[in-house]
Amino acid sequence: MSALAAQGCRELHDCLAAAAPADATPDDFAALAVAYVRFALAHPALFRIMFRTSCTPADTERDAAAADVDAFVRRAAAHARPDADPDTLGVACWALLHGLAFLYLEGKLPTDPPAAVDARVRTSVGALIDA
User: Fold this and answer.
1) What is the C-alpha R_g of the chain?
2) Which of 47, 55, 52, 23 is nearest to 100 (CA)?
3) Which of 51, 91, 128, 130 is deepest in the core (most CB within 10 A)?
4) How would you write the pLDDT of the chain (131 residues) with one tens digit per residue?
5) Which of 29, 2, 27 is nearest to 17 (CA)?
């Protein structure tokens, strides 16, 4: 499970990096947010494994891959809103992205049409970045 989680984190990182640069503008960060949620929806089982606590404790490969995703999101958020506290903004952004992803995965928000999902994610992230 830990090896799958590590691989999933590396794939998510690559997906985010392809969607937006680490020196993201607010629009870039919105694209990164959409990519995060789309990844979760495209790979629901893998996404759930990536964030399970039942993976091997202290698995350095998984921990390093997850840390790379966290660092990328924090760096992009800090560039999108340079006047904000980077730690607070990073946690808030990750919580929003992760929360939206799981709300969609658990059927609490409708996933059709996909354009509406993208719009909701962009609007939510925009509200956070603009706050």
Assistant:
1) 14
2) 47
3) 128
4) 888 999 999 999 999 999 998 788 999 999 999 999 999 999 999 999 998 766 666 778 888 998 899 999 999 999 999 999 988 998 999 899 999 999 999 999 999 999 999 999 999 999 999 87
5) 29
